Amino acid sequence: MKLSRDLSGQELVKALRKLGYQRVRQDGSHVRLTRLGPPEHHLTVPLHSPLRPGMLAALLDQVARSLRITRSELIRELFG
pLDDT band for position 49 (50/70/90)? Predict the structure, then answer.
């Protein structure tokens, strides 16, 4: 499944809530999210609109690794 190239940081934060990520704090245009797990995982998401493709891929890879699934499975779960 292909993602839209105009996904914003805010939209990604909203989608990650489905997986149990919670907003912990915000510092300027960056939001810190935490999933209590197991395993516990922390992620910083820039609230840029749109997110650059490389940044989006890196963030999704971090989440997928934490959940021990592939990026494709993660995309289907979040946006499918």
Answer: very high
71: helix, coil or strand?
helix
Residue 57 lies in a domain: yes
What are the Cα distances from residue 4, in Å, to 10, 34, 40, 62? 14, 24, 28, 19
CA distance 46 to 29: 6
The secondary structure of residue 49, as a DSSP letter, is S
Examine residue 28 and state whether it is found in any structural domain, yes or no: yes
CB 52, CB 5: distance < 8 Å: no
Compute CA 67 distance to the chain's CA centroid, rounded to the nearest angstrom: 12
The pTM assigned to this predicted structure is: 0.91
Domains of the chain: total: 1
Range of the domain at 16: 9-79
State which H helix or E strand residue 24 sits in: strand 22-27
